Amino acid sequence: MTTTDTTKPGRPAKAYSQAHRLLILYDMLNDGAHLRAKHTAEKFGVSRRTLERDISVLREVLQLERVETPEVAYRLVGKKRRWELSSWQVLAVAVGAKTTDFLAGRRFAPELEPLLDQLRSALNPGQRHRLYGIEQKIHAVRLGDKDYRTRPDLQEVLVELTDGLLYEKPADVSYLSHRRAAGGKDPRELCIQPLSLVLHRGGVYFICDVAGGDWHGDDRRILLALDRIEHAECRRTDASFDYPKDFAPDDFLADAFGIATVGELEHIRLHIDEVYAPYVLERRWHSSQNFEHQPDGSIIMSLEVCGYWELVDWILGMGEHVEVLEPPALRMKVRERLEKALARYDDEADDSAAT
Hints:
Blueprint: H1 18-30, E1 35-36, H2 37-44, H3 48-61, E2 64-67, E3 73-76, H4 87-99, H5 108-121, H6 125-130, H7 134-137, H8 152-167, E4 171-175, H9 178-182, E5 188-200, E6 203-213, E7 221-225, E8 229-234, H10 249-252, E9 265-272, H11 277-281, E10 290-293, E11 299-306, H12 309-317, E12 322-326, H13 328-343, H14 346-354
Antiparallel strand pairs: 1-3, 2-3, 4-5, 4-8, 5-6, 6-7, 9-11, 9-12, 10-11
Helix pairs in contact: 1-3, 2-3, 4-5
């Protein structure tokens, strides 16, 4: 059995319905194109009269202006054109929304959804079609994120501090660190000036300057965890504070491995075997990181950081694939943690030896 190709000579093989043509023409107009009946008709493989009918349909619903060129053309009136927004710009916002949905609550979710709707409405039909189902096309796996959606008390704190951040207003907070809680102490009552909201490993933190209250440390610029703030109130009627022009979050956290800024700056050297080396090499762990490649495929990793808190946990996560070369204090700290972990399995080792 044979089929006959009914495509007319000189016409493209692909056939467009009128609805499809109108959609593409609408996209072209929103991109600033001039529609010329003859030239555009050839693109679609239709007659000039057919294309003129399509333009007539568009003129009934859009404000088009006739442009007298060597060939009559139509374009969308400038003042009526949509806000020019690309699909990639909406995609960027959607990615941001997906990766911060653990913040959803009284402020973030109600504000974010209408924004996405407005952005979608600014797109032309073709762009909206390409972004259909964007919620399924982007997915973020976040192991161990803090879920603030179930904590209305923290949502209120977040609102107060973000208002202070955006409007540069001081805020009063009650802050109870893990250390003070373990020692049975009361929260510190502080007056702070929020400088930056920091997202780290699914948690929210604020870099702030201490303006007053129960604080006797030398450093007036500190990092507060949202989870440890029991109460916060933005001083909305106070005068705005002078936001430091030279402040940069990256500079404040430059020496930290993660967000822990406590301790002296130290030179760290780790030997990472050939099995785990590729996984370490493909990521940026710290701005000071440096690698020495070894003949057997292993690497020596060097970095300059302060504080062991997150660094030790990261090293332990590599298990037998890493050895701390220096400093001695870090090597001892990791050894102690490994010995304590191994002690939990001593009974299994004894049972194995007995058999």
